[in-house]
Prior knowledge:
The structure holds two protein chains of two kinds.
Chain A: E1 4-8, E2 11-13, E3 19-25, E4 30-35, E5 38-47, E6 50-55, E7 58-66, H1 67-80, E8 86-89, E9 94-99, E10 106-107, E11 112-118, E12 121-126, E13 131-136, E14 143-144, E15 149-153
Antiparallel strand pairs in A: 1-2, 1-7, 3-4, 4-5, 5-6, 6-7, 8-15, 9-11, 9-14, 10-13, 11-12, 13-15
Chain B: E1 12-15, H1 19-31, E2 35-41, H2 48-51, E3 55-60, H3 71-81, E4 85-87, H4 97-105, E5 109-110, H5 115-122, H6 124-133, H7 151-156, E6 160-168, E7 171-176, H8 182-197, E8 202-206, E9 211-220, E10 226-238, E11 241-247, H9 254-269, E12 275-284, E13 289-295, H10 302-309, H11 313-321, E14 338-345, E15 347-348, E16 354-355, E17 358-360, E18 363-364, E19 371-375, E20 381-383, E21 390-398, H12 401-414, E22 416-417, H13 424-430, H14 434-437, H15 445-450, H16 458-477, H17 488-501
Amino acid sequence: MSDHEVRLGDRHVQPAEGWRLDWLDRAAGTARLVGEGRSIPVVVEGSGSEWAVTLHGRRHAATVRTWRERLFAEAEQTTRGHTGELTVRASLPGLVVAVRVSPGDEVAEGDSLLTIEAMKMQNEVRAPRAARVTTVAVQAGQVVATGAPLLTLE
Amino acid sequence: MRTDTSPPPFERVLVANRGEIAIRVMRACRELGISPVAVYSDADVDALHVRHADVAERLGPPAPAESYLSIEAILAAAQRSGSQAIHPGYGFLSENHAFARAVEDAGLTFIGPPAATLQMLGNKLAARRSAEAAGVPTVPGTSVALGDDLTELTRLGLPIMLKAAAGGGGRGMRRVDSADELGEALAAARREALSAFGDDTVYAERIISPARHVEVQLLGDRHGGLAVLGERDCSIQRRHQKLVEEAPAPGLDEATRAALFDGARRVASAVDFHSAATAEFLIDSAGNHYFLEMNTRLQVEHGVTELVTGVDIVAWQIRVAAGERLPAGIADAPRGGHAIEVRIYAEDPYDGFRPSGGTVTAWQMPGGPGVRVEAGVEAQTPLPAEYDPLLAKLLVHASDRPAAIARLRRALDETLIGGVQTDHGFHRWLVDHLAFADGRYDTSFVEVEWGNGPATGSEEEGLVAFAALEARRSERTGDPRHVAADDSSAWGRQARRGALRR
Lengths: 154, 502
């Protein structure tokens, strides 16, 4: 039983079983997956809960959280509730490369609000629920720290 | 060191480019006994190409206009370094007739076709007219610059492609599907052409679709010698830019091949030509061929032709620039076999081939039999946003096409790139595609068959999740070497080491 949960995008994914990860160069992130009589090269980069895995040439963003981190995140989600004003904050430090909404825009759940480049990955910040954009606090080209307010929704 | 006794064609050659092509040219220089000189912008101080040269000269700030496109800065660098000739690579100033003329006026040798030829063939409308005059079929279109009178256009039938006369290489093009878009599209095409190329002359061509894009490699000397080095199929494209090239063109019948070679020869013979150039053609589904344009420079994809002919095109560019004659029959005894090139771009094929940018972290290129890698980057290379996102070209050569595809699949599986999303995954998908295996593809292939790529399979997702999970666990346990779900692999590794010792 794993003590972690893994998400690819917004979906929970069950890690494959019967494989092992052999590092080729830990610092560069090169490794191979060995299992089922096969060996598959991968690049694994990141730290903490945020990872990028390149498999067969495609780069995937993966979030690996402990149950404690997950419970904390869910509690935070609950206190936000489903109505009222919601401040969307940067979940990791990075460079804002694109802002896709303006104050007054109506967004649906899952719509991309802005793109932050962090850990050399472009991360889409998506609307947690259907809402109207009230303020936008950042612009493209700006560097943001973890927890920095990005925009508010209501 | 050269083993024969002939002196090097030049002592020192300045390579007015960056990235993989600068390194490719410098390697040719080294093999000819020539000392290569690099130039660099402030964004490229630590770039790989700089380290391949004997001497490196700074051009200026990162912006291309102040560095790799600055004729003044490049000529000054050539004077400072004592270079006798300049190789422009592709892109940047390679087809700029004013640059070629300025190089010659400075008493140096331009390694490329004569300035007047660059000027004449650089105007795509003039090149069209020249081809027509030489009896080579062109894509149905206007052979005069478009005025405000649109009747000429409507006669062509829609859809059409509006093209900038000063464009080429897939740039400065605009598709028009309906008559009511025409006026506005023409005005926009003119504005774009003026801002991108400084010339608002626009012409129109009928869109040939489905079509294959096949081009013919030419090599000429200063004494009238002209060799046709075969063709390449470059139909795998996105945004009219090539992703994959192969030689010979699959499924091309001998009569069409001969007609393409003859057409290319006619276009080149109509002008004062030496050095390397490529005649580009479209072939429609009925097998009719149409001349598109002539590229008067080294092509990105010249390597596939080198692999199947055994002719070093870059070395010959340098040698003919110095006045050497092409040997008679240079193209008569090709090596044969089949060659394929894939371009590794810092682009996201899962998001419309959008440039991805960032820093290349991991960089592991394939090797072994029949594999050639032309790379402009290595591990820990930041990618300047100012320049073309081509990172490397991966080429394979094998006895026939199926063997070349198998070799390419193997080479792609050895390739590991970290830090940036590249089109590696697209190429890996391509080599398993049945239509590609059968050689049945045209210029719409990427748009129709790939789109934004297939969804990630559940097995793949499970492996990605497992890799991320194990990476996080290894971070916690601090094991620097390897991590496994259990301890068996450590024992396995030990056992394998033991077996090797026996």
